[in-house]
Amino acid sequence: SSHMGNDLENVLFTEEQIHQRLDELAQDIGRDYEGKDVLLVGVLKGAILVMADLMRALPGSVPMDWMAVSSYGSGTKSSGVVRILKDLDTDITNKHVLIVEDIIDSGLTLSWIRSNLESRSPASVEICTLLRKPEAAKVEIDCKYVGFEIPNAFVVGYGLDFDEKYRNLRDIGTLAPHVYS
Ligand code: PRP
Ligand code: MN
Ligand code: MG
After folding, report:
1. The CATH number fitting domain 2-179, selected from 3.20.20.30, 3.40.50.300, 3.40.50.10420, 3.40.50.2020
2. Ligand approaching nearest to the C-alpha of 75
3. What percent of the chain has pLDDT over 90?
């Protein structure tokens, strides 16, 4: 909305740019998984809109499942130790899993989720993220599908929140300083 839009400093990606990029990624994914069954695994809550648009851009019928995780400790993600709040409903043994994320920041969340899923004997595990911040990486993550690489700034919108707000912004942007004060 225009009200929330006032809280943005810069729009980094418009809704149209996001959709166009996800369509491109969906073409790559559709080609790479041709003839294979793939399960999309979204990470709550940030990935909900990436999932919604990516899955509709994919050819054929593609199932999805979700995980919700939380870092141990109060608010800090520095440990990289994660606890599962909601596990998959699906047994992924021998399945091709594609993790769907909104952003890789430090990489600690996805690093943990990927190892956790790999321990369940899937046929394969790959990652699709809309955004990645190379400068913020604390661990290297092999991510096959990346929408956009962005600088190390706090971004909101299109599923990404600041204190649970702004997830429903259609565009992605940086927050204006007055929001913090
Ligand atoms: C955000 C984002 C990623 C993660 C990336 O989720 O959606 O899942 O942080 O950070 P990292 O690479 O440093 O681990 P958050 O924990 O804020 O939960 P949310 O998706 O519910 O907003
Ligand atoms: Mn998240
Ligand atoms: Mg968040």
Report:
1. 3.40.50.2020
2. 1
3. 86
> Is the pLDDT reported for residue 131 higher than 60?
yes
Output 15-22 pairs: Cβ under 8 A, ≥24 positions apart. 15/158, 15/170, 15/171, 18/53, 18/130, 18/147, 18/158, 18/171, 18/172, 19/53, 21/130, 21/147, 21/148, 22/50, 22/53, 22/54, 22/57, 22/130, 22/147
Residue 81 or residue 34, greater confidence: 34
Instruction: Clarify whether 161 is annotated catalytic.
Output: no
The average pLDDT across 79-100 equals 94
pLDDT category of residue 1 using cuts at 50, 70 and 90: very low
C-alpha span between 71 and 86 (Å, rounded): 13
- Residue among 28, 32, 65, 105 flagged as catalytic: 105
Confidence at 61, pLDDT banded by 50, 70, 90: very high
For atom 7 of ligand 1, which residue has the closest CA?
Answer: 46
For ligand 1, atom 16, the nearest C-alpha belongs to 70
How many Cβ atoms from other residues are within 10 Å of residue 152's Cβ? Answer: 11
Residue pair 123/70 in contact (Cβ under 8 Å)? The answer is no
